[in-house]
Design goal:
The complex is a heterodimer of chains A (about 120) and B (about 110). Chain A is mainly β and about 120 residues long. Chain A is built from no helices and 11 strands. In chain A, the strands form 2 sheets. In chain A, strands 2, 4, 5, 6, 9, 10 and 11 form a 7-stranded mixed beta sheet that branches. In chain A, strands 1-3-8-7 form a 4-stranded antiparallel beta sheet, with no helix packed on it. Chain A is globular, with a radius of gyration of 14 Å. Chain A starts with a strand and ends with a strand. With about 110 residues, chain B is mostly beta strands. In chain B, strands 2, 4, 5, 6, 9, 10 and 11 form a 7-stranded mixed beta sheet that branches. In chain B, strands 1-3-8-7 form a 4-stranded antiparallel beta sheet, with no helix packed on it. In chain B, a hairpin with a 3-residue loop joins strand 5 and strand 6. Chain B is globular and about 35 Å long. Chain B starts with a strand and ends with a strand. The chains are: A mainly beta (about 120), B mainly beta (about 110). Chains A and B meet through strand 5 and strand 10 of A and strand 4, strand 5 and strand 10 of B.
Chain lengths: ~120, ~110
Amino acid sequence: EVQLLESGGGLVQPGGSLRLSCAASGFSFSNYGMSWVRQAPGKGLEWVSGISGGGGTTYYADSVKGRFTFSRDNSKNTLYLQMNSLRAEDTAVYYCAKEKYQSETSGYNYWGQGTLVTVSS
Amino acid sequence: DIQMTQSPSTLSASVGDRVTITCRASQSASSWLAWYQQKPGKAPKLLIYKASSLESGVPSRFSGSGSGTEFTLTISSLQPDDFATYYCQQYNSYPWTFGQGTKVEIK
């Protein structure tokens, strides 16, 4: 059974940093692209960042580029999202999500339960 | 960046109704489009991928169509479990982007 378990969320002051983790199990982790998607309270979904199966290629939304770093440790089946220079507008539930296919992007067929990040003084 | 615009933002419908949600892209997304259903407090669920392919386990009353810049999600006969918010997402080019969502409410 595929499982994605996020952790690391919490309350942080503006300008602060936080590192989210997503522990994956139940599939060949290194073969799949993964992403982070966030959802501000009462708002819609926002794609944040994506990473290739090998970890060598990353992509970012303009809103987080230069502040967030997405990485993965395939030996530990774990994703990381390092978030620096946090702003109030980064407050959201952060989901990690698994791409459906190894060789072709076709949406996310598994999602974690989400972890809440609150940026406030 | 490709901007995705869904319409309507809110839809009131009754059980048994045929429901159609539209998603328009600011530039071609080819057929690289997915539809998700989200219920309050839950993670999104994949319904449709590659514009018209039904995800395994999703009821056949859901269908998707379109290509290029215009896409639709149709629910042929709305069921009580279908009241939720629906999002489209393009994955033709980075940054991948979602529509703003369509909330399907009980009429």
